[in-house]
Design brief:
elongated
Length: 144
C-alpha cells in the first residue's frame, strides 16, 4: 500500500466513523436526555454539526489532493467523489434550510417540522455508503 492510499483509507474511514457517531448516534440520542429543551438541543446540534462539517471539508480536500497525486482505482474515486458531492449538497442546499428553521425555533417561533431533516439523513446514508465503498476499494487495491 502506498502512503497516499494509506492516507485516503485512513481519512475515509475516520470520516465515516465521525458521520456514524454524530449523525446516527449523538444527534438522535441528544433529544432523549432528561430536561434537555428543544432550544438547547438545537444549539448544541448546530455547534456539533458545524464542527463535523468543518472536519469533513478538511478530510474531503485532503482526500481529493491525495487522489490527484496518486489515483486509486476508478471505483474508489467514484465512490469518494459521491461522498464529496453529497457533502457539498448538504452544505449548500440542505444546511441553509435547516439553519433557517433552527433560527426560527431558537427565536421562539412555532414552526412546523422540516422535511429537510429527512433529506439530510438520506444524504448522510448515501455518504456513509460511498465512504464505506471507497475506503474498502482503496484498501483492497492496496493489499492486492
Amino acid at each position: 500500500m502506498t502512503t497516499t492510499s494509506a492516507v485516503i483509507t485512513a481519512l475515509g474511514f475516520c470520516w465515516l466513523g465521525m458521520v456514524l457517531a454524530i449523525s446516527f448516534l449523538e444527534a438522535p440520542l441528544k433529544f432523549r436526555a432528561p430536561g434537555l429543551t428543544l432550544q438547547v438541543g438545537l444549539g448544541i446540534g448546530r455547534l456539533v454539526f458545524r464542527a463535523l462539517n468543518t472536519i469533513e471539508i478538511v478530510f474531503a480536500a485532503t482526500i481529493l489532493i491525495a487522489i490527484l497525486f496518486d489515483p486509486p482505482p476508478v471505483g474508489a474515486v467514484v465512490a469518494l467523489m459521491v461522498a464529496m458531492a453529497t457533502l457539498i449538497v448538504q452544505l449548500v442546499v440542505v444546511r441553509p434550510r435547516l439553519t433557517r428553521r433552527s433560527d426560527a425555533v431558537l427565536a421562539g417561533r412555532d414552526v412546523p417540522r422540516s422535511h429537510s431533516h429527512y433529506a439530510y439523513v438520506a444524504l448522510e446514508v448515501l455518504k456513509v455508503i460511498a465512504l464505506l465503498i471507497g475506503g474498502i476499494a482503496v484498501l483492497a487495491h492496496g493489499v492486492s
